[in-house]
Amino acid sequence: MRFAIRRPFAIPLFILGLIVVIGVVVTFDYITLLFDPVNDNAIDFEVPATDKDTGQPVTSHPQLIPKILHQTWKNETVPEKWRAAQESCLQSHPDFEYKLWTDESARQFIADEYPWFLDTYDSYPFNIMRADAIRYFVLHHFGGIYIDLDEGCQSRLDPLLTYPAWVRQATPTGVSNSVMGSTPRHPFFMRVMLELKNYNFNWGVPYITVMYATGPLFLSVIWKHHKRWAVSDAEQVWILMPPEPGAAYFNDLHGSSWHEDDAKWIMYLGVHWLLFTVLGFLLAAVVGLSSYLLVRRVYYPRTALNYKYVEYGE
Questions:
Q1: Transferase: present as a keyword of the record (predicted)?
Q2: Using omega within 30 degrees of 0 as the cis cutoff, is the peptide bond preceding 48 cis?
Q3: At residue 167, what are phi and psi to the nearest 5 degrees?
Q4: Per-residue pLDDT tens over the stretch 82-113
Q5: DSSP conformational letter for 243
Q6: Residues with Cβ < 8 Å from 281, sequence gap 6 or more?
Q7: Residue 147 bridge partners (DSSP)
Q8: For residues 57 and 88, what is the distance between their CA atoms, to the nearest angstrom?
Q9: What is the longest distance spanned by two Cα atoms in the chain?
């Protein structure tokens, strides 16, 4: 009879525990990114020597990444506010091949080279998700360096050509997809391409949907998984660290043209993640206690009465 009295109290506790377990499982990779070191394979800024005849940088390491610059925009008319940044990269790298991927040419490329992904590509609810996806595919296919249009080039990128694959450290955690470099067919970008289908989920909030399905948080999780698998230097992904003052490869203009009203609230949560984590646990505790008291109020009088009948044989 003692079990019959206590059993209703276990119901809200079980439900609360189940919710907590599911939440931890779903967010585990994202939470642990906060504590995952990104400087294991760090790239620090270095000024290479230049050839006195050609004026081109000379590095002591062999070039691995082909001299190709990739950028994306919806058409071939780049907005005026980003043309200076675009020109800074073009003018400082006249010996690089330049590819501007438009909505039309990007979709045609997927249809021709990766038709198995076309349905997923077309299904994305936001165009920025297709812009995210195409950069992974062209880096895998051609190799080269991808640069967002709101990134200007402050110096030659030749030293970055000596790493098999690299991405840039993000703030406050993980890595960014705003500038990336890779050799053709690198296993990291192969993994990224294949995982895009698995992460294609609409969370109902534009910013979260983009970040978790194709954007930096998605890339960060795949990078985290890849680190466990990569066994050779050629398979590693290197991390371009924040530059020292006055020394940088890129000049970030922070365009964020795809951000909607929800983005500022999500970014505020990201900055104050510890506070909101504590508040979340407190809220869970309040909900659990309230559920317990409610179940006790509903069930206790009835079970106590039944216990009384059994105890005294009434």
A1: yes
A2: no
A3: -135, 175
A4: 999 999 999 999 999 999 999 999 999 999 99
A5: P
A6: none
A7: 179
A8: 17
A9: 108
The residues, ordered by sequence, that sit 6+ positions from 124 with a Cβ below 8 Å of its Cβ are 130, 133, 200, 213, 214
3-state secondary structure of 165: strand
Rounded CA separation 147/86 (Å): 9
Structure tokens at 200: 């294609």
Structure tokens at 45: 């800024």
In this prediction, residue 117 has a pLDDT band, given cuts at 50, 70 and 90, of very high
Q: What is the pLDDT of residues 251-308, one digit of tens each?
A: 876 655 555 554 455 555 555 556 656 666 677 677 767 766 776 666 655 555 455 5
Q: What is the DSSP letter of 99?
A: E
Nearest CA-CA partner of 33 in 140, 176, 196: 176
The reply to whether omega before 79 is within 30° of 0 (cis) is: no
Residue range 121-148: mean pLDDT, rounded: 97
Identify the burial level of 71 via C-beta atoms within 10 angstroms of its C-beta, where 0-12 means exposed, 13-18 middle and 19 or more buried.
buried
How far is the C-alpha of 21 from the C-alpha of 277, rounded, in Å?
A: 15
- Terminal-residue alpha carbon distance, the chain: 15
- Tens digits of per-residue pLDDT, 143-162? 999 999 999 999 899 999 99
Average pLDDT over the chain, rounded to an integer: 80
Q: What is the pLDDT of residue 4?
A: 45
Question: What's the distance, CA 133 to chain centroid?
Answer: 12
pTM to 2 decimals?
0.74
Q: What is the DSSP letter of 166?
A: E
Say how far apart CA 225 and CA 212 lie, in whole Å: 15
Tokens of 124: 């994305």
Smallest CA-to-CA distance from 298 within 16, 9, 14 is with: 9
Residue 58: CB atoms within 10 Å: 11
In three-state secondary structure terms, 224 is helix
Say if CB 270 and CB 172 are below 8 A apart.
Answer: yes
